[in-house]
Amino acid sequence: MMRVRVVLLALAGCFWVSLALQAQELKGRVLAASSDKPIAFATVGIRGKALGSTTDERGYFAFAVPTALPGTDSVIISCIGFRAVRLTVSQLRRAEGVWRLPPLAQALGEVRVRHPQLQPAVLGRNAVGGMAYWTTKIRDSTLTVARDERGWEVATVLPVRRSCYVDSFRFYVSQNDFQPVRFRFVLYELTEGRPTRQLLTDDIQFTLPRQQTGWATLDLRAYNIQLRKGQTVAAGIQWLQGEKLVPGSGPQSGALSGPGAFPSVGHRVLVRDKSEAEWRSLPVNVSMYLAVQEYKEAKAN
What we know:
With about 300 residues, this protein is mainly β. The protein has 2 helices and 24 strands. The chain folds into 2 domains: about 15-100, Carboxypeptidase-like, regulatory domain (Immunoglobulin-like), CATH 2.60.40; about 120-295, Jelly Rolls, CATH 2.60.120. It is globular.
């Protein structure tokens, strides 16, 4: 039986096919405003379009866009721990500029003492297999100018039925045709089914080893992440850096993929091709979950 593809081609992407033959490269560098030090793996994206990239270890970025892309389109440069900067495509076209992100003021966190009565639980799917899969291989038609996976995201939607502390994040990889891949763990709050706010104050990055498949585990206990009963969140990964095993062999030659159950009533997976692209929501329960310690909230007097 043919497997169901999680990532569907957007109809709107057809518009860009005719523009893909004429592309230009936008370049720049991202620094911390407070220190002038480079910000590694900040995201740079065209608002509402599958175009963008991430910075390298020295803060530099470069990505291709159609030459007919409107100069008034918004560009968002962001990174956890910093205030995002908004500019326009025209500003990036003028020169290889330097863009500085101011630090995000962080309120002093309260000292949290773990609840004495905790119960291990799982938010998400810890089973393997299914007819569907998430994959980096199928993206919208801007792939002809967006030549890499930088900024690509996948996340599973998780309702929080009891307050809990997050111990770890796990996801299953069934295909991996890449050298070591650097990811960012993402955790969004959802409003009306769409991510609206990043819940993390720490930039949590990790590396998936070369060609590793099976369960990948990220230990989160050091970050003291707490979720409240009634929240709906999306937990997942954002691609920061990684090269195919066979460089230059074309966009369809390799993939990173994981399984999911389809159809799955009441479960959703969210996918977007770049950091500022529109999210696509699909009825798939992917093999991706949070291991948590649940507790019962004390009743107010």
